[in-house]
Amino acid sequence: MTTQVKHYIDGEFTAGTGTSQIVVTNPANNATIAVINSATADEVHAAIASAKAAFKTWKEVPVSERARVMLRYQHLLKEHHDELATILAHETGKTFEDAKGDVWRGIEVAEHACNIASLLMGETVENVARSIDTYSYTQPLGVCAGITPFNFPAMIPLWMFPLAIACGNTFILKPSEQDPMTPQRLVELFVEAGAPKGVLQLIHGDKTAVDILLADPAVKAISFVGSVAVGQYIYKTGTDNLKRVQAFAGAKNHCVIMPDANKQQVINNLVGASVGAAGQRCMAISVAVFVGAAKEWIPELKEALAKVRPGLWDDKDAGYGPLISPAAKVRVLKLIAQGKEEGAQCLLDGSDFTVAGFESGNWVGPTMFTKVTTDMSIYKEEIFGPVLCCMESDSLEDAIELVNASPYGNGTSIFTASGAAARKYQHEIEVGQVGINVPIPVPLPFFSFTGWKGSFYGDQHAYGKQAVRFYTETKTITARWFESDIAVAAGPNMSINLR
């Protein structure tokens, strides 16, 4: 059965009138599971107009009422958690456990949005001058938009629209066309939670829709997660059009392993962090740097990786699922071949892996290289597949120098039993998110997701306090009141109704 994916524009779910059709496939066998009628220019403009009109009333809704919408929404997300994970697994190929994790990390951000009243509090100083007080208010921007990737179709949209809307903005979500059914279900539940008409819009399409969002002056801010080239384009085009932009782009994340680390913990964590989700995570560990005698653990790491078996979403023994598309598989296989040609030693090669009965799926088995150098394609490029590059370093100082020379700065980790080594690493490393004996240091929502360097373009990061600042503007008031103007009280007021 093929599903017709729907847009949500001006309070109505619609298949749209676009004649350009996008086919959505199951990555496990590339069978068609859904179709999208790409949004026309008129439909994108209608979504923007509806969001702009809704902002006039939504921004005046008391913050406590906006918080109640988020409370109802996070409850519905939890109630439909497994349903969302099932939809997500079918269209991404993720294992069910991985899909549940995707949904849950998004729910955590929706929970954080429930605390929006405290997050929006301004600042006050009494008597900045004689009888003069100064205080600040935090106010919404207007229409905001989010452009999200295929690899986390629940979590990343939920990074964006709950906080933006809780701040008093309206929002247009343009998710990846490769897995649109999960975002559609997120929107359906948001409507069920009581979101007023026009507060959230959902449009599906390609670059045409994105370019309209980037150009229309009614859209005040753009949030993006995706590839380096597209992230740079979104940031440059959006800022050229005088918009706020936060663009999360590529990564090449290193894990530094000290010889005093717990060997089994290192091996267990490296396996999951490198090939989990088929390596299709911007926080995946794709480079392991073994310091000194730690290199002796490489053969055992290979043995552990070799035991990981990809499989179908409902296979409880599967370590991960297929890549998202045939094109993604072709790209990963090309990089594996280049690694061999350029002189890296391929200790484990998953190029020819298939799953019985699903041979047409986008499968790549666990792959591991040693003797990798910084001038090789497999080191310079973000592979976005289940491929781990192993490198060696004589000292912690050399390892830090290697990591800091990378143009990316999304995430990194160090495994060590030494507090001094960990302290040196966290202080000197030029990466935004650092794990100490934690392989993938994605922060919880009350912190922000803080990639650096070529992994992020913008000023304020996703979720946490920085997202609230990104989706709002600060108004500062300086006031003087004269005591001579105090009037005589008119009488008692017995009401406590603050509505």
Automatic annotation (TrEMBL):
InterPro entries per record: Ald_DH/histidinol_DH, Ald_DH_C, Ald_DH_CS_CYS, Ald_DH_N, Aldehyde_DH_dom, MeMal-semiAld_DH
GO molecular function annotation: methylmalonate-semialdehyde dehydrogenase (acylating, NAD) activity
Enzyme Commission number(s): 1.2.1.27
Enzyme class: oxidoreductase
A Gene Ontology BP annotation from the UniProt entry: L-valine catabolic process
UniProt-listed Pfam families: Aldedh (PF00171)
Domain Aldehyde dehydrogenase residue range list: 16-477
Keywords carried by this UniProt record: NAD, Oxidoreductase
Coiled-coil region list: none
Keyword Transmembrane helix: no
Keyword Nucleotidyltransferase: no
NCBIfam families associated with the record: MMSDH
Family to which the UniProt record says this protein belongs: Belongs to the aldehyde dehydrogenase family.
Protein name (Swiss-Prot/TrEMBL): methylmalonate-semialdehyde dehydrogenase (CoA acylating)
Source organism per UniProt: Shewanella oneidensis (strain ATCC 700550 / JCM 31522 / CIP 106686 / LMG 19005 / NCIMB 14063 / MR-1)
